[in-house]
Design brief:
Elements lengths: L5 E7 L1 E11 L5 E9 L7 E9 L4 E6 L12 H13 L4 E7 L10 H16 L6 H11 L12 E5 L3 E4 L7 E6 L6 H10 L25 H7 L5 H7 L2 H11 L4 E4 L6 E5 L2 H10 L7 E6 L15
Parallel strand pairs: 5-6
Antiparallel strand pairs: 1-4, 2-3, 3-7, 4-6, 7-8, 9-11, 9-12, 10-11
Length: about 300
């Protein structure tokens, strides 16, 4: 059988269903505990990656539909992922990437990390056995703390700096509205302000709510959902970007059961009791540009069978 030479993959965004900052390491990294939920790969918040092996060395890169803050050169995380894979694989030739951006940059939705994860798992599929397992994980972690999650993006409890993941099986799909105020917010700026403010750390595993399997929205009270989605970084990020609070208020007014910021922001999400309620809320949502919103959903767990070869 001829070797497969190209693939098209979805690179879905994610939300953080709660985020606790549990420690600071000597190297400057923060230890976290969070439930990562990937968004539906066929939804509006999933980048599209076309990936091909080629005879010419190096990485060819084409960026389409880029928004503010997305690099179109070799500094793009997707290119760095491919370069790292090829350097470690020791294979002749290179790769070509066409990246269609749909996920806003600097949003707390993991768009760049997802692109890198898609490139790595795509190259691993195109060149099976060349780089896999711990070596692929190490390469992903070297690119960014969220990248290992996107090697196999399914609902998981993520801890450490992103290297520890516990799959959550049976997590339901959640109907969401995701909203973004427009300008990006740099993760480094949020953590720098968080540290400068001497914010209290959450003791590791002190709040079992974040570890519990997410239930369907109607199965828990609003108070329980508010505790589940709490994000330790949100007060700091809101100081830097007050529009975060405004968007949360609009999502509450649109009928969201719970609202929170994702990651280091500034994107926020509202959890709705059903797709019907979400669509009703989305229809009445009035945002002033440059703010944007998307009606979407998380991917249920598992959204592909263990061991299956599907890459969406």
């Amino acid at each position: 059988m001829a070797e497969r030479r190209s693939l098209r993959l979805a690179a879905p965004a994610k939300i953080n269903l709660g985020l606790r900052v549990t420690g600071r390491r000597a190297d400057g990294y923060h230890e976290l505990e969070s439930v990562f939920l990937p968004l539906a790969p066929g939804g509006p918040l999933a980048d599209q990656v076309e990936l091909a092996l080629r005879a010419e060395p190096g990485v060819g890169f084409e960026l389409r539909g880029a928004g503010r803050g997305v690099p179109a050169d070799a500094s793009n995380l997707a290119v760095r992922a491919a370069e790292g894979f090829l350097a470690r694989a020791g294979r002749p030739g290179g790769a070509a990437i066409v990246l269609e951006k749909r996920v806003p940059a600097g949003a707390g939705l993991g768009g760049g990390s997802s692109d890198a994860g898609a490139v790595l798992r795509g190259l691993a599929a195109l060149a099976p056995g060349v780089l896999a397992g711990e070596a692929l994980e190490a390469l992903a972690l070297g690119l960014g703390a969220d990248v290992p999650f996107f090697l196999d993006p399914r609902p998981a409890l993520v801890s450490g700096i992103g290297e520890r993941r516990e799959p959550l099986r049976g997590a339901p799909a959640l109907a969401l509205i995701v909203a973004h105020p427009g300008p990006p917010l740099a993760t480094a700026d949020v953590f720098r302000a968080f540290d400068a403010g001497a914010a209290a750390l959450t003791p590791a595993r002190a709040l079992p709510r974040i570890r519990a399997l997410p239930r369907r929205p109607g199965d828990e009270s609003r108070e329980a959902w508010a505790a589940r989605v709490r994000n330790d970084l949100e007060p700091t990020a809101t100081d830097l970007c007050p529009a975060i609070a405004d968007l949360r208020a609009l999502l509450c007014a649109a009928g969201a059961l719970a609202t929170a910021m994702s990651g280091s922001g500034p994107a926020v999400y509202g959890v709705f009791e059903s797709e019907e309620r979400r669509d009703q809320g989305f229809a009445q949502l009035a945002l002033a540009p440059p703010a944007r919103a998307w009606a979407t959903a998380t991917a249920a767990s598992p959204f592909r069978a263990p061991g299956a070869g599907s890459l969406w």
